[in-house]
Amino acid sequence: MVNVLKISDTLVKKCARSKDYNFDFNKNTGFFARWGRTLKDDPEFAPSPEILDIEVSTICHQACPFCYKSNTTNGKNMTFDTFKIVLDKMPKTLTQIAIGIGSIDANPDLFKMMDYSRSKGIIPNVTINGERMTGALYDRLAQTCGAVAVSLYDKDTCYNAVKELTDRGMKQVNIHALLSKETYMKCYETLLSRIIDPRLAGLNAVVFLWLKPKGERNQLHQVESMKRFQDLIETAMEVGGSFGFDSCSAPMFLRAVKDNPNFEQYKVMAESCESFGLFSGYINTDARYFPCSFAEGVGEWQEGIDVLTCNDFVKDIWNHPLLDKYRKRSLAEIDCNGCRKCLIYDLEI
Question: Which residues form a coiled coil (predicted)?
């Protein structure tokens, strides 16, 4: 697909240029644009990952009943040495990482890892649950991260965390709200809170996460109907302010807005599944590669692919026969709106 790929990397911007694959990434704002031979062309996949989820700890004190990772206080940490080896193997196309951690203080090397990522020109981001936070931790997150998401579990804990971060000048602060039958009203109320709760004045966006049926403790259920989903979207549009969905939601989102006069615009903006060797990937605490965190331990992805022993990430991981098999499947299994389908779970409503 790519002949010669050139990467330019400055303190503010990372750019990729080749005949068929190009991108611009602004490290300060998070703006990312990708195109192919022309600006209208959209490459089917990247020559190597643009973003990675890297799990640095499975230790969490929350014990949420719906945790798809089934994390407890008896977890494990990725060592800094392992993190460094993993990052050193990454191709230059990598623009940012999403660090996966349960309790914010679970891994004592968390900020050392973030600093190392910054030193490599890779922007670190993280999702927090808002618990066990201190002023010093908020300071460090605001100084180091490109973006911070706060999971919506307890409303006050979440909203207070958003305020702490935005008060420190952070612009890319989002709320991650798991969307399910059981959490539907909480998602709805969060949209309304944007216009009445001053703690959310600096919030960037509410991002809804599509429920995946994974986790021994997970007893949640999919939203009952497309009508309920459409009602939530309509409320979000009426309230105003930025909102979004994870890529798993894209097929359902486009079906929900099919009669909207701005449908074609939404179709361009919606990015369906970018895993399975397309644009992103996931590496767990043992430095094993999976298409995404939800694929870990499922089907043919029981063990993943060992990153530590690979000599060439692109050859040994990104173009591994198993990942290439799923890449081809992902590109072939497209719905009527051009969305790639999830290859692991049935996410339809």
Answer: none
Amino acid (one-letter) located at 60: C
Count H helices and E strands in the chain, helices first.
10, 14
CATH number, position 19: 3.20.20.70
Q: What predicted TM-score, i.e. pTM, was given to this entire model?
A: 0.95
Tell me the pLDDT tens digit for each residue of 177-214: 999 999 999 999 999 999 999 999 999 999 999 999 99
DSSP state for residue 289 in the 8-state scheme = E
Instruction: Count CB atoms within 10 A of the CB of residue 112.
Output: 13
In a domain, 338, yes or no: no
Return the amino acid letter for 81.
D
User: CB–CB of 18/35 below 8 Å?
Assistant: no
Neighbour-count burial of 217, counting CB atoms closer than 10 A to its CB (0-12 exposed, 13-18 middle, 19+ buried): middle
Task: Report which DSSP code applies to 305.
Answer: E
Residue-number span of the structural domain to which 185 is assigned: 6-332
Separation between Cα atoms, residue 17 and residue 8, nearest integer Å: 8
